[in-house]
Design brief:
The complex is a heterodimer of chains A (356) and B (455).
Chain A (H helix, E strand, L loop, with lengths): L6 H4 L19 H13 L8 E2 L1 E2 L5 E3 L2 H9 L5 E2 L8 H8 L12 H31 L4 H25 L27 E3 L1 H10 L3 E2 L2 H9 L5 H19 L2 E5 L7 E5 L9 E6 L7 H13 L3 E9 L3 H9 L3 H5 L2 E10 L8
Parallel strand pairs in A: 1-6, 9-10
Antiparallel strand pairs in A: 2-3, 3-5, 4-5, 7-8, 8-9, 10-11
Helix pairs in contact in A: 5-6, 7-8, 7-9
Chain B lengths: L2 H11 L13 H10 L19 H20 L11 E5 L4 E4 L12 E2 L5 E3 L1 H10 L3 E4 L13 E2 L2 H5 L5 H15 L3 E4 L8 E2 L11 H18 L9 H4 L5 H8 L12 H10 L11 E6 L15 E7 L10 H10 L14 H5 L3 E2 L2 E2 H7 L13 H4 L6 H11 L3 E8 L2 E10 L11 H4 L2 H7 L5
Parallel strand pairs in B: 1-5, 10-13
Antiparallel strand pairs in B: 1-2, 2-4, 3-4, 5-6, 7-9, 8-11, 9-10, 11-12, 13-14
Helix pairs in contact in B: 2-3, 4-6
The chains are: A alpha+beta (356), B alpha+beta (455).
GO molecular function, one term (chain A): tRNA-intron endonuclease activity
Catalytic activity (chain A): pretRNA = a 3'-half-tRNA molecule with a 5'-OH end + a 5'-half-tRNA molecule with a 2',3'-cyclic phosphate end + an intron with a 2',3'-cyclic phosphate and a 5'-hydroxyl terminus
Pfam families (chain A): tRNA_int_endo
């Protein structure tokens, strides 16, 4: 596993197909022409070996193999590690935790940090509750408000002191747990690769149809997602999602699942390690409508995370028959191209901030 | 991207509509302010208890807070002096209120004066002024046929509210009063000003169909290119093509899914207005109000283009449902306001005069003919605004995407509470945010391509 590498070095390619590097063509040097032509003919954008896609019994699309997972993550941030927050770091983390690697890797501790913070927060809440009880007690006894305030200050100070002390003292917790025996490999120096990279159905389609890097069969993927005899509304819904996904991907956005914020997609500039997502996309049909509570709820959740809500209305430009015909002829990309993306930005408007 | 740049992204983008408007009022401080009367800032509230804990101390705190709040309201001076009393008579026949001799600053933005010098108020204007205590409502009674024989019947606020004939009318009033109280200048679209200004040229000047023809030929010429094109998903594609940079790949990918390009500039706006074909079966939402930001130079007769346009939607009304996309399209098509995304016109009022039409003729010509002084460029404090902040290109691009292009305000009424949503057309398809690795080819040319912005 590579050590911590600067993002700009690690995430050089925004798409899983790497551009070919051709030698410089020098006009007055015929030898360079020959070399250039040779390089052109022998090079290819295609991967030497396509990445195999597995479809689990539960209908999930996964990629296994450390290199493959890493390749998809580093080339456009595709998929999510099943045992990680998003980047499949479980393996490295576990090796790190169990101290199996003699070199001792730092930098894969994102999840640990989260865990630690959650613990601290919980601790604080418990402390606060106990103080609230104490204050109630004091009030019942008829203690003056100013005195209670004094007590509160004292308590806050104590809390802060303890926190500082705790931060200084926390070392690594004892590394090995009982259940770890099952995941340590025979040689005792590594862990079993049980983490998989899971792809959204639209991601799997994109990497199979638009950018052929997955070794997979599109009809099989679709049959798995929609069932063997999908109804037209189901097909349309998938087409809409795919059209939106492809649209944003093709204009340079890094598109990831928006389930965390109750919407369909999140749009990142460049990728999650570099920026927070700036937009949340909800994919809708042009004639689709919900009650106002639906919109305001989504907008609240998204707005609370400092993102802008985009309502992507994906409209079908041709008759339903045409879509069905293309679908059954398995000309999926042409079917997707029947859809057109329209966008509205939904945002709360504050009169006070728009007065001048 | 350096950290400094990232920081500037964070600072530059999250400034405007942050959720920091939830300031509750502390009335005990307010009570002191009423006496001083000169200060306008409200102080922040103190710490809040979450639930009643049954202690006397808490009950006492609550009691004093309530006491000061009601005390503040009760003890301040109320009522109006007889000298400044303005009587407004409700004329049921016209469904308007009449003020025989109107005076006061409200006449700058409200009411219409007829040739007898009487000021006529719309129902919502009437109710708003009654609620404020600016006018006293009277019922105009005609005894027999004699107009002169008026008997003054003073109306109560309840009576005045009873004049609303439908829920829609009441909803519109709620929005009107809310925006009015916040200082905006609000004019109902039911009551157009004497001289209507439009961004769009009158229909007779509509450009001929020739541009359409041109488009056809243009698209025709493009087809041969497509004949030899092997799409990306074709098995042979990678045998025939070599991509030497990521933008080439993106270029190829973006061929597949079409997107709706929304108007970005003056010509596109006008073209869309002329050529846009809309589904006539779609519900036509009413654009209820034109709204101007507070300004002293407002003229009732020639107000010019509004700053915002408002559509009213009552969430609890079973007859109204949230608009679908087609309904949104129809609203966007009818919008006619100061399109704030037009950079070239953002400078001052006088620039807009060159691009708008009043009563069917260019506004500048109209003003000369009617001897109206041209709009003054904003003076004093606004000169600072002219030097609008300029952002680095990549931030400007995101800001543009976030604010969109044409927009309107959807005011949502929920149990009598008004909240606002800004709906804007956006266009992610017209601007690319490709990332190109800088080290790969070593040329600076690549870098500039990735920064390309079509705003």
């Amino acid at each position: 596993m590579a050590k911590r590498v600067a993002g700009s070095k690690r995430y050089v390619h925004p798409l899983p197909i790497e551009p070919v590097v051709l030698p410089p063509l020098i006009a007055h040097n015929p030898l360079s022409w020959v070399y250039w032509v040779l390089a052109y003919v022998t090079s290819s954008n295609q991967l030497p070996r396509k990445i195999p896609l597995e479809v689990g019994a539960d209908g999930r699309y996964t990629v296994t193999g450390r290199e493959q997972m890493q390749y998809l993550w580093e080339h456009g941030f595709f998929g999510t590690g099943q045992l990680s927050r998003s980047e499949p770091t479980w393996q490295a983390r576990t090796v790190d935790r169990l101290q199996l690697d003699t070199e001792g890797i730092a930098g894969h501790k994102l999840e640990q940090v989260t865990q630690l913070r959650r613990k601290q927060r919980l601790e604080f809440k418990r402390e606060r509750a106990s103080f609230e009880r104490k204050r109630l007690e004091l009030r019942r006894q008829g203690v003056l408000e100013s005195e209670i305030l004094e007590q509160e200050r004292l308590w806050l100070k104590q809390l802060r002191d303890r926190e500082l002390q705790w931060e200084a003292s926390t070392g690594d917790p004892s590394p090995v747990r009982a259940e770890d025996a099952e995941i340590i490999a025979e040689d005792g120096a590594s862990v079993l690769p049980i983490e998989k990279l899971e792809l959204m159905p639209v991601e799997a389609l994109f990497l199979t149809l638009a950018l052929p890097v997955l070794h997979a069969d599109a009809p099989a993927i679709l049959a798995r997602t929609l069932g063997p005899q999908p109804a037209l509304p189901q097909i349309e819904r998938l087409c809409r999602l795919y059209a939106a996904y492809h649209h944003y991907r093709s204009h340079g956005w890094c598109v990831r699942s928006g389930i965390k914020f109750g919407c369909d997609f999140l749009l990142y500039r460049r990728g999650p390690p570099f920026h927070h997502a700036e937009f949340s996309v909800m994919v809708l049909a042009p004639d689709e409508r919900h009650d106002y509570t639906w919109y305001s709820t989504v907008a609240r959740v998204v707005g609370g995370a400092q993102k802008t809500l985009v309502l992507a209305y994906v409209a079908r430009r041709a008759a339903a028959d045409q879509l069905a015909a293309l679908w059954h002829a398995r000309r999926y990309m042409e079917a997707f191209a029947l859809f057109e993306v329209h966008e509205l930005v939904y945002r709360r408007w504050l009169p006070g901030k728009n007065r001048e | 991207m350096t950290e400094a740049e990232e920081l500037s992204v964070a600072l530059g983008l999250h400034d405007s509509d942050a959720e920091e408007d939830a300031l509750a009022q502390d009335w005990s401080e307010m009570a002191k302010l009423v006496k001083k009367a000169n200060q306008h800032a409200l102080p922040r509230r103190g710490e809040k208890d979450y639930e009643p804990d049954g202690t006397d101390a808490q009950a006492l705190l609550l009691h004093t807070a309530k006491e000061t709040m009601f005390g503040t309201l009760l003890n301040s001076v109320r009522g109006s002096t007889v000298k400044t009393l303005i009587k407004a008579y409700w004329e049921e026949e016209q469904r308007m209120a009449r003020i025989p001799n109107a005076r006061g600053s409200f006449t700058n933005t409200m009411g219409k004066v007829d040739k007898h010098g009487q000021c006529w108020l719309q129902l919502h204007e009437f109710v708003y002024l009654v609620e404020r205590g600016t006018v006293s409502p009277y019922l105009a009674l005609t005894v027999g046929d004699e107009k002169s024989n008026h008997e003054d019947v003073l109306l109560s606020v309840q009576d005045v509210y009873a004049l609303f004939s439908s829920t829609e009318e009441l909803d519109e009033f709620l929005v009107y009063a809310h925006l009015k109280r916040l200082g905006f200048i609000v004019v109902s679209t039911d009551n157009p000003p004497a001289h209507v200004t439009s961004f769009y040229p009158p229909l007779s000047q509509k450009s001929s169909a020739s541009s359409n023809w041109f488009c056809h030929i243009h698209s025709w010429l493009k087809t041969p290119q497509n004949l030899f094109h092997v799409p990306l998903y074709h098995p042979l594609h990678f045998l025939l093509h070599r991509y030497t940079s990521s933008p080439q790949l993106y270029e190829e990918l973006s061929q597949h899914i079409p997107f709706k390009k929304v108007p970005h500039d003056i010509n596109e706006l006008r073209e869309e207005r002329n050529n846009g074909i809309l589904n006539p079966n779609v519900k036509q939402w009413k654009i209820a109000f034109n709204v101007w930001k507070p300004k002293s130079s407002f003229k009732k007769k020639t107000p010019g283009l509004p700053d915002f346009q408002v559509v009213v939607y009552n969430k609890d009304n079973a007859g109204q449902q949230f608009p679908t996309y087609d309904e949104f399209r129809s609203i966007f098509h009818r919008l006619d306001y100061r399109f704030d995304f037009l950079n070239e016109l953002d400078v001052d009022d006088s620039a807009w005069d060159d691009y708008t039409y009043t009563d069917g003729m260019p506004t500048r010509e109209f003003m000369q003919r009617n001897k109206i002084a041209p709009s003054q460029p904003h003076s004093g404090g606004d000169s600072r605004k002219k030097k609008a902040r300029t952002y680095p290109q990549h931030i400007a691009q995101i800001r543009r995407l976030k604010s969109g292009f044409k927009s309107f305000i959807l005011s949502v009424i929920d149990d009598g509470l008004v909240s606002f949503v800004r709906i804007a057309e956006s266009d992610f398809g017209s601007s690319n945010i490709w990332y190109t690795p800088p080290s790969q080819t070593g040329t600076t040319n690549n870098r500039t391509r990735s920064d390309k912005v079509d705003v």
